[in-house]
Amino acid sequence: MGIMSIDAARTEEQITDVTSSVNQLADRARRASRVLKRANRDWKDRALLAMAAGIDANRSKIFQENKKDLEAGRANGTSTAMLDRLKLDDSRIDGLIAALHELAGLPDPVGRVVRGETLPNGLRMRQVNVPMGVIGTIYEARPNVTVDIAGLSLKSGNAVLLRGGSAALNSNQALVAVIRDALESVSLPRDLVISIDQYGRDGADAMMGARGKIDVLIPRGGRELIQRVVTTAKVPVIETGEGNVHIFLDADANEQMAIDILTNAKTQRPSVCNTVETLLIHKDSPIAASVLKALSAAGVTLHVEERAAALVPQLETIAAVEDDWRNEYLDLDIAVKVVDDIDEALDHIREYSTGHTEAIITSSLASSEHFIAEIESAAVIVNASTRFTDGGQLGLGAEVGISTQKMHARGPMGLAELTTTKWIVQGDGHVRK
């Protein structure tokens, strides 16, 4: 056997070993999830609070490990946007702790009756929320997601397998260790939260093929990652948000409101999926130049088509090309186009949207209702920043991702979206005639 054949055989053997190992971990998670089915709300909430306390007590260790990831990222030429996602500081740790406390304060979704009635024949019927079972997640360079998903999975009664990517390896290992210790401290199985990062990309591939072992797979990251999972996985997938987000500036929009909203939507945290990437301006807007000047002053690079460029000839801009309308910049860049009316804006959004979030800034009720009715994205916003498309901001405690599909879950996915339903039918010796 030649050298190449030996290498190929060895690689195949290694992949088989990884698949077997991931399947075994999924089985362990399944067994742990059965224990969680017996846990009441109080027990799960105590676990969430223990996770929060553990993260707070281990800040220095978490920061130390996060620093290793950031240094490696800079050495590898990681983009500014990705480094921002990767970074943990006191403010972000405080946010994670607050999210866990908020989750503990939310009602338990498990056992909630979706509908129920006594049928004419006397059968008693209920449809209730139940856990999915074992959730798999594949994400990249986002250590905060490790905590959000672990907390949401626990409260919704699920075990979770995490593949957080090599860029955040040290941060995720530190957080998972804290979370597993917290579970054990309240007598819940450590295997409710399992990382498979040690298996690298082969581990992610094994998760995608683990049909019957993993009940649902949720990817969270950039377009390449999400599409790879969607097109490859044999496990059912909930597709989450690549965010080519649009804002339409109507002709009668208030100037200060528009400046405040657009500046927030673009600059508050440009590296996340709910930041605005394209601004569409009504041709009759009297405030267009002021808005573009404000964005430029805030450090935003404007990628403009011809009519938009004519609004601000004194500004340094970049001529927009076709790719700009499709680009999720995740940075301080925005594509700008002037449109004749709201219908042209809607046509543009239909052509280029990824189905995440679209917003309108307007003083017209008719325009807002027209926009709401025709937008097909998971979230539509009127006179507010697109940054509000977020589980925490919408009262969900946290989110496992923002679903851009139309099946089962759509928009920010919180506790309810991590459950499915079960029909319970009770009778008194009923037989079908």
Quaternary structure state of the chains depicted = single chain
Structural class: alpha/beta
- Helix proportion of residues, in percent? 40-55%
Beta-strand percentage range: 15-25%
Report the average pLDDT across residues.
91
Q: Give start-end ranges of low-pLDDT stretches.
A: 1-10
Tell me the overall shape: globular
What does the largest sheet look like? 7 strands, parallel
The rounded distance between the terminal residues' Cα atoms is 68 Å
**Major sheet: arrangement of strands:** 10-9-11-8-7-12-13
Number of helices: 15
- Topology, number of strands: 16
Structural Rg? 24 Å
Domain Aldehyde dehydrogenase: 11-306
Subcellular location: Cytoplasm
Keywords: Amino-acid biosynthesis, Cytoplasm, NADP, Oxidoreductase, Proline biosynthesis
Protein name: Gamma-glutamyl phosphate reductase
State the gist of this model:
The chain is 45% helix and 18% strand. By secondary structure, it is an alpha/beta fold.
Describe the structure.
Residues 11-306 form the Aldehyde dehydrogenase domain. It is an enzyme of class 1 (oxidoreductase). The chain is α/β, with parallel strands linked by helices. It is 45% helix and 18% strand. The protein is built from 15 helices and 16 strands. It has helices at 3-36, 41-57, 59-75, 80-86, 90-105, 143-155, 169-185, 200-208, 223-232, 255-267, 288-297, 306-311, 322-326, 342-352, 365-374; strands at residues 113-118, 124-131, 134-139, 159-163, 193-195, 216-220, 245-249, 276-282, 301-304, 318-319, 333-339, 357-361, 379-382, 402-403, 411-412, 419-426. The strands form 4 sheets. A 7-stranded parallel beta sheet has the order 10-9-11-8-7-12-13, sandwiched between helices. The protein has a 4-stranded parallel beta sheet with strand order 5-4-3-6, with helices on both faces. A hairpin with a 7-residue loop joins strand 14 and strand 15. Helix 1 packs across helix 8 (200-208). The longest helix has 34 residues, at 3-36. The protein starts with a helix and ends in a 7-residue tail after the last strand. The model is unreliable at 1-10 (pLDDT under 50).
